[in-house]
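Field reference: sequence -> structure
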Amino acid sequence: METLHNPDRFMADLRQILSQGRKRIGLLVGAGAPIAVRVNEDGALDNAGRSLIPGVEKLTESVLDSLIGSEKDAALAINVGLGAKGNIEAILSRVRLLELALGPTEVNGLNSAGYKALGQSICKKIGEIVGPVLPEGVSAYTELVAWISGTMRAHPVEIFCTNYDLLFEEAFERARAPYFDGFTGGSAPFFDPVTVAGDDLPARWSRLWKIHGSLGWAVEGGSIVRGRGREAAQLVYPDHLKYDLTQKQPYAALFERLKRFLLTPDTLLLTIGFSFRDAHICAVIDEALAMNANTAVLAFQFQSLGQEECARKLAFDRPNLSIYAADGAVVNGVEGNWRPGELPKNWEEIRSSFWGRRAPDKPVHFLLGDFNLFARFCALAQAKDFGREQLSAAQSSPEDSAASV
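Structure field:
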């Protein structure tokens, strides 16, 4: 018997949660998110333009193309050796491991000093590619910040971001919405793991955790500081093999914060633009969901279920992880295709925010794997509340056998 999931049911529940400000909510925002923000040749927002920041595959290609001589030969050799797992983050981790291990011995034409220089070249190019300023106007980032700051909250919204760019920082600052990112101070803000571990700040201060590092971070005087400009790119991507406490500490504290968040009772984590291919993050999610049945993770995936194998595998093991893909969902460990129920009263406009066509020539499907549409859904949940009658009607379809959020 075919299993069917009704998207109206789940989105009605989620919309209610997003509009209230009472639940502890986190966002895990991956590399797929900024791809959705498109600009024209002048850098202005334009849905028909190019992605403001490319995805990991394009970023890897651009960085490798920019290298020259023996550095390029060594990076290409590493990429070939990594096989299907090859991307710029994996390459950079391997480069730094070789920098530590080799000394005067050469591998692929470079010794320890050569791999140190290669790592610096890679980080510099990454900084150039992911360094664009958030364009003026309404974007997914500004709409998410509007939703976050648009209501009084019992708990702060926590954003766990794997990206190196400064787009969230700029969106918060343009909205004059306070946030805490683990750093404190004026002239040289320093990373403070004690404050990261605590909850001393007011709930109106959102938390922004850059768990793969960020542009603007640097090591100065034995401390990690930020605010050193987009040219400072030495600390992008955590070195999970890293050796000295100074360089390991930001990432250790931030990953521990993610784990602690997921272990808190009655917590909801929404993931967007995250492929579930990052073994370190997935290990934290897997362990926390196994330990805490009162936490829920909702993963909004851009592709069809068949193309989201990493996410599906984890969802089958952990029933408190739900996957919402373009053509179907995995809920409570049960996979099924989407099928909306009978249109409830006054629900047509709400359904159009999560169900429709991405383009005129595309089939009708679930839309919220697109970062732009996900952010708009959150903003609309804040702007337009709805009554319990509509909520009950949206949940009433007998076709859906799975539990809601």
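Note: The first strand starts at residue 4 and ends at 5.
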